[in-house]
């Protein structure tokens, strides 16, 4: 697989680092998002998720994946979107962040895209109080915009600490 390369920043461009490379795209609320393919460990269909008490609402619980207990975060809820019933297309993308595996629940997986530097733009300024650090940039492909996410920032320190706590329970 091609490694994700950082694109040189131009003066005046947002502090967001633009990265070209391969991205796994998925859908949430009808919009397409992408995460670096190198962060993805596997994609699995929806399975039984065991709720864990005293965790935030977006932390759906844990799954047992071949003997490993993996926490699952519902990205819809994490982003403040409305929760919906799972469909046959709902799936869990298992990602590795800071050497920890975490599942992210998405509406459906689309494809693996090869994003070139000329297809990338920094995330626009969305106003004060809106955290744009979670965006790697915007990819313009086939007249559509795909929002590239920084999964390390989305599943930041708070979630990793929660994952470590959940792992120490067993």
Core attributes:
mainly beta, 3 helices, OB fold (Dihydrolipoamide Acetyltransferase, E2P), 44% strand, 7-stranded mixed beta sheet, 5-stranded mixed beta sheet, globular, 170 residues
- Overall residue-averaged pLDDT value: 83
Low-confidence stretches: 1-17
Under CATH, the homologous superfamily reads CheA-289, Domain 4
Q: Work out the helix count.
A: 3
State the oligomer.
single chain
Rg, alpha carbons? 16 Å
Report the top-level CATH class.
Mainly Beta
Query: What is the count of distinct domains?
Result: 1
Q: Sheet bearing the most strands, described? A: 7 strands, mixed
Strand segment tally: 12
How do the helices and strands follow one another from N- to C-terminus? EEEEEEHEEEEEEHH
CATH architecture: Beta Barrel
- How far apart lie the N and C ends? 35 Å
Q: Structural class from helices and strands?
A: mainly beta
CATH topology: OB fold (Dihydrolipoamide Acetyltransferase, E2P)
Which outline best applies? globular
Strand content: 35-45%
Helical fraction equals 10-25%
Task: Characterise this structure.
The chain is mainly beta and 170 residues long. It has a single domain, classed as CheA-289, Domain 4 (OB fold (Dihydrolipoamide Acetyltransferase, E2P), Beta Barrel). It has helices at residues 75-78, 151-154, 157-169, and strands spanning 5-6, 19-28, 31-36, 40-45, 59-65, 68-74, 91-97, 100-106, 108-115, 120-121, 135-141, 144-149. Strands 1, 2, 3, 9, 10, 11 and 12 form a 7-stranded mixed β-sheet that branches. A 5-stranded mixed β-sheet has the order 4-7-8-6-5. A hairpin with a 2-residue loop joins strand 7 and strand 8 (100-106). The chain is globular. 29% of the residues are buried. Mean pLDDT is 83; it is low at 1-17. This is Chemotaxis protein CheW.
């Amino acid at each position: 697989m091609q490694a994700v390369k950082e694109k040189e920043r131009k003066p005046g461009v947002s502090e967001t680092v633009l990265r070209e490379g391969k991205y796994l795209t998925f859908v949430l609320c009808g919009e397409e998002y992408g995460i670096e393919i190198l962060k993805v460990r596997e994609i699995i269909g929806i399975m039984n998720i065991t709720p864990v008490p005293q965790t935030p609402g977006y932390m759906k619980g844990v799954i047992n994946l071949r003997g490993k207990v993996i926490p699952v975060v519902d990205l819809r809820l994490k982003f403040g979107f409305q929760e919906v019933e799972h469909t046959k297309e709902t799936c869990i993308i298992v990602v590795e962040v800071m050497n920890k595996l975490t599942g992210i629940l998405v509406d459906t997986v689309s494809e693996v895209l090869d994003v070139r530097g000329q297809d990338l733009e920094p995330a626009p300024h969305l106003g004060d109080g809106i955290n744009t650090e979670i965006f790697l940039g915007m990819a313009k492909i086939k007249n559509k915009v795909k929002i590239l996410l920084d999964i390390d920032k989305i599943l930041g320190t708070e979630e990793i600490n929660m994952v470590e706590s959940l792992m120490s329970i067993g």
